[in-house]
Every structure is written in structure tokens, then in C-alpha cells.
Amino acid sequence: MRAGFLMGVVVPLSLAAVAPAQTEELVPPPTPVTVHSVGGPMPGGPMPSVSELAHEVNPGLPPESEVVGLPQMEPGHKPDESHKVPPLPCVFAEADWIYWWLSSARVPVPLVAFLPPGNQPEAPGILGGNPAGFDVFSGARLRVGGWFDPEGDWGVEGSGFLLARQQRTLGALSDSGGNPSLVRPFLDASDLQTVLVPVSVPGVLVGTLTATAALNYEGAEANVVAGLVRQGWRLDALAGYRFLDLRESLNILQQGQVLPGAVLDGGPLGPLGGGTSFLIGDRFHTTNEFNGCQVGLRAQCFYQAVDLQLVGKIGVGDNRQEVQAVGATFVTPTPGGLAAAGGQAGFTSANGLLVQPSNAGTFGRDRASLISEIALIGGAQVTPHVRLTVGYSALYWGGVVRPGDQIDPVINSSQVPLNPAFRPGAVQGPARPATLFRTSDLWAQGLVLGVELSY
Fold first, then answer.
1. S-S: 91 plus which of 65, 141, 146, 445, CB 3.0-4.6 Å?
2. Number of neighbouring beta carbons within 10 Å of residue 386
3. pLDDT digit string (tens) for 349-386?
4. Which SS3 state, helix, strand or coil, does residue 11 take?
């Protein structure tokens, strides 16, 4: 019994004595570390860098030049936030003033020309034969939208613009004696020879010719916006619907009156005596309506309270084109006019000069069309909720019909009232002028000034 007690005491004590010795053999002694003071210079030298401290703790680290992820900062240094992307608003609304130039409308046919003594009209003419441009257009654009989440992953926006309607009138007229001699040239469909319709004849006919062009332009769009980049700059993708509407008209009006005591050859109408007045009108009206889809990108960089934005969009869709042509001629006698000269008492016709039965009416068709837009906009955040903008934008629309392009210079002279070859009734010979549906490209570009409110 005593031997069992001794064994119970001696064995545990022996194990306890052996265990520390084994532990000291398995664990190497720790490497001594020199402790430096923090926040002040080292005694006898400068304070070591972070990489030097790390290398001193673990000599197996690479040299300081190869240490990655240990930025060196001076005491009190603050990170540069001048290019930080500002937080996105929940909702915003922007109102812009537009100052746009539109590409000129062509009038390739001389509408009226001088007739010098050589009986050959001067080219290209007083009106027509060259582009007919408008002045600069003013307009307004409204843009609204919002984000579904604070990070700006998804949002929606929509905008619409309207240019102020513009009208421009040009004309040529004679004096009270019918000077100078003015004519309207066209090509006869039978032989393509030049035929001249008088506007004024010295001593015989006083007359005027005016051409009035008018234009309306508007559009709208709605897009879904997806945020792609939000690190130091902003990049958004856009996709949605685009609508454009362009309406133009060109009215050409010729008025004349035979001078007292003179007689003008009225062809089949007979001689036109003094005091007889007449009016010849041609009207061309075109409509373009685009409905389609578009995609685009918008990049925006920031520096403190200012930013610069670059936007690009491209779209494709259906362009509904319509061309309308209307003509008319009115001959009004006065006492001692037509009847006294042996002619008719009066005359009215649905034929003009440039509009005849062969091209009169309203015609429509659908064509695929391409649009594109680019804008460079600078902004300044003047208050947390107000941002001012200024920049340049350009909008391209391909394949539009415009009034001047629809004028056919080849005319069947048998359908022209007051022409000696006029034959009322059924068309004799080629059916000209024709409905052309000639197209051209439209550019709208200029300055944009705006103010944006956000919350």
C-alpha cells in the first residue's frame, strides 16, 4: 500500500519535470524587437518608416523598394477629393435655351430671273438656283429624370425640345412701268427647251414674285439609364425611344397686272387687255416624322465644383415622309379688260406653274432613317441643388424630304395657263412635273445654355 502511494506521487512529479524541457526544445527563442517611441523622433536618428519596422520584425520580407501596399504618408496628410464623384440626386429637372443653326434648304430651280436684251435669262436667277437658308433658331428644351438607387445603377430620364417657328420671304418686283423684265424659266417636257413665263414686261406688264419658306422642328426622347463606372468619373449607358418632327413649306406667288392701253398675249384665253390682273400660285409642303430606338453613352468627369460631360447617341427607325403640292391660277378682268380685248370674262384653274395635275396632291411613304447626336456640356454646381450648364450640341437626321427638293424643272407646257401652248383638259405628252421624293440630310447644331435643379 505504501509502495502504491509513492508511485502515485513520484510519477506525476516526474512528468511535470520533463514537460518544460521538451517545450523549450520545440519552440525557438523569440527574436528580440527594439521598441521605438511613436509620434516623435528616434533617439539619435530619424523615425524609421513602416517598411523598416516590418523588415526588422520579420527579416524574411523583401526590400523596401519591393514592399507593396504600404503607402508612405506625411503626418496630417489628407487624400485628394477634388475628382470625387458627387452623390447622385434622387430627381432632377433641367431647362435649356437652344441657339441652333439648321442646314440650308435647297431650291435647285431658278424661280425668277432677269431677262436682258439678249432674251436669255440670267443664271442662276434672282431667287432659286442656290441654297435658301434661315436665320438662327431659338428654342427651348426640358429634361427630367431620376435614379432608383443611391449608387446610380439604374435610372430613367426624358427630354423634349421645340424650336420657334421661322418664316422667311424673298421677292423680286418691277417698277410701275414694268422694268426690269422678269421671267420664270422652265424646261419643256416635249423637247427640254427653255420656256419663259413673263413676270414683268416693260410698258406692258407690272409684276412681282415672292417665295415664302416656313419651318417647324421639334422632338422628344425617353431613356433608361444604367451606371457603368462610378470611380473618379462617371459613365452611363442609355437606351430608349426617339421622336423627331420636321414640317416645312414653300409658297411661290406670282402677281401681275396689264398696264392701261397695253395688251398681253393670253394664249387660248385670248388677249389680256389693260387692267387685267392675274395670280399664279404654287405651294409645296413636306412632313418628316421619325419614330425609332436609340442607344448612347454619357461620360462625365469632375474637378471640385465643375464638371465636363460628353454625350453620344445613335438611333434608327421609320421616317414617315409626306409631300403635298397645290397649284392655282386666277385671271380677273376689270372694265375694259379681257372682254374689251376680245378675251374671256375671267378664268380659274387648279394648275399653277410648278404644280400641275401630274404632281398635284398629297403623297406619302415610309423609309428607314438614321439619326445621331453629340453634345459637349460643361457644368458648375453653384449650390447643393442648382447647377448651371453651357455647351455645344449637334443633331443629324438623314434622308428627309424638304420643299425645294420637290420642284421638278421639267414641265409640260400644255398644262401652263397663260402660255400660248396651254391646252386645258387631258394631259397631252409627258406627265411632268413629277412627284420626286428627293431627300437630303438635316443638321441642327449650336449653343445650349441651361440650369438644373436637383434633389
1. 146
2. 12
3. 889 999 999 999 999 999 999 999 999 999 999 999 99
4. helix
